[in-house]
Amino acid sequence: MSATKAYAAQSATTPLAPFDFSRREPGVHDVQIEILYCGVCHSDIHQVRNEWGGSTYPMVPGHEIVGRITKVGDHVKKFKVGDLAGVGCFVDSCRVCDNCKEGLEQYCETGMVGTYNSNEKDGTATQGGYSTLIVVDEQYTLKISDKLPLERVAPLLCAGITTYSPLKHVGVKKGDRVAVLGLGGLGHMAVKFAVSFGAEVTMLSSSPSKKADAEKLGAHHFALTSDKETMKGLQNHFDVILNTVSAQHDYSVYLDLLRTNGTMIVVGVPPSPSQVPAFSLIAKRRSIIGSLIGGIKETQEMLDYCAEYNISSEVEVIPIQQINEAYERMIKGDVRYRFVIDIASLKK
Ligand code: NAP
Ligand code: ZN
Ligand code: ZN
Fold it and tell me: What is the CATH number of the domain that holds 68?
């Protein structure tokens, strides 16, 4: 077993605090990764605070992990000691259902094994990337290029794939009118990908202060969601809306912005449900679909795409000691645009 330093939540109402535990020694197919950076996703907050229900403690959050391989099992083929590696939102799945066989492990019919707040097949609780080490089967580990700064790559493991995958799935292409709703970790990656796929991109935000940043990220237009006149002018306008909002909001306001056959992709997971009026859908044969992260093969494709086209996350690197403050700032929408923990701060 390997001693591992971490920050954990002991309950839904206590702040994250230092926590020591042990990781297993790598099995024959496993790699051991010394974690260098871990991104902070809003899903970490939802789960730490048990906003979706079913959380278990102690919980070490973190599923945007990059680091360097320090040990490999005897049968490991893809990696050697010293390689860069990444781990996203899951570390295993059944491997035999139709979804797993198609590379859609995130939709595994018996449920994927989450990187944290979940259980390995042997029943051990999984613990995430706000920690110094992780041990993962090589099949669930990603190759990381050395072309991009590592701290800016970490958020690609969740925010990146969660926005890349559905934009690809609905076939966003040159000239499509795409709106991104909510400019946070997911939203800013969605803007970058939609722009790189050739779409005409509009940022829909509740924060006037983010206008200049949206333009810097490549958005062609910015609309303040509280501005009734602007919103009226955008009715029946978009082919696709990628909805990344983490808090309760009214879907129908945004469905009405879709043109005929338009699609709203829901990736944000507010703790309570939103009503969907039938009229907003039938009026223009609109659809609403959901999407969960992406499979291993597509995550690797996205990482390689980012390395080739120089796409990475805008980050504020923090020491782990500032994590509770970072959570409070994210809840206020005050993040530009992903907090990333420098894991060296855990060793101090
Ligand atoms: P984030 O960085 O906190 O960004 C969320 C953004 O939503 C905020 O920056 C803000 O943008 C907007 N927002 C927040 N509260 C709002 C409110 N009350 N009304 C209107 N807009 C509000 O969060 P994130 O890490 O990008 O995650 C976003 C959501 O996606 C979370 O619910 C997370 O759990 C979920 N998620 C889903 C998947 C998946 O696989 N489907 C994967 C990862 C995360 P503006 O200031 O621009 O309005
Ligand atoms: Zn996430
Ligand atoms: Zn499966």
Answer: 3.90.180.10
